[in-house]
Amino acid sequence: MLELHHNDMSTCSQKIRLTLAEKALEWTGHHLSLREGDQHKPDYLRLHPGGVVPTLIHNGIAIRESTIINEYLDDAFPEVPVRPKLPVDHWRMRMLTKQLDEGVHAATGVISNCTAFRFQFAQYTAEELQVHIDRIPDPVRRETRRQIIDKGLDAPVFAPAIKRFDTLFNDLEDALAEGPWLAGEDYSLADIAYTPYLTRFDHLQYLGMLDHRPRLMDWYDRVRARPSYDVALTKWFNDKYLPLMREKGAEAWPRVKEILDSR
Question: Where along the chain do its domains lie?
């Protein structure tokens, strides 16, 4: 039996749901509200002491960290593989998914929060905001969250995050010169891993970054056309968040272009 503790708009949750959909696996979901701090409540922290989503429960065992969860699912349910056939393509896949855990995912959170989600705290009192920040276990993440909420696009972490994605999009564009999918000839965990991140940039109105990256834009069109996209992502899009991301992202886009043009 598979149980998934997840969030509707979480990029890490989205990539697990994509793998489950590609493999046509049945699962029971436990949705956590990140804004209300469900991920920091004692019951969940017993499953994931880091207080982040998702966590997969399989046969009573808590499987954590989304990149590893996806590899676990492919090991546990190999009937529909989502790893490349060729060893060299498997290596390409691992090199790409490794980047997510080495700064790309963190940069996504910075960009999303600086651009849009910080405005969700506008109605909080100072005390309520402090409670929200104090729930974050990692002191570095706590201080970063405070800067993001206070300064938005002027937070010192915003421009480096945008530049990190500019570099990443170059890497993905180059990868697609080698085959139709990010790791070669086979749709794989690399494509699953990056689909939510391109979707986030789409929601933030930042896809202008793909204007000179036609292979990546074509890839994004093709992953959205897969049936798994609607099952794992579209079905879960939160209508409370989409207008905020669209509005604030459009306002922020000139600043993003300024950062990119300064490179």
Answer: 2-76, 87-261
- Mean residue pLDDT across the chain: 94
Fold of 2-76: Glutaredoxin (3.40.30)
What distances in angstroms separate CA 40 from CA 61, 64, 110, 135, 137, one per listed residue? 20, 15, 19, 6, 8
Q: Look up the CATH number of domain 87-261.
A: 1.20.1050.10
Question: Cα 231–235–236 angle (5° rounding)?
Answer: 115
Terminal C-alpha separation, the chain = 49
Tokens of 91: 């290596």
What residues pair up with 30 in beta bridges, in sequence order? 5
pTM greater than 0.85: yes
In this prediction, residues 39-54 reach a mean pLDDT of 93
Phi-psi region for residue 59, left (φ > 0), alpha (ψ -120 to 50) or beta? left
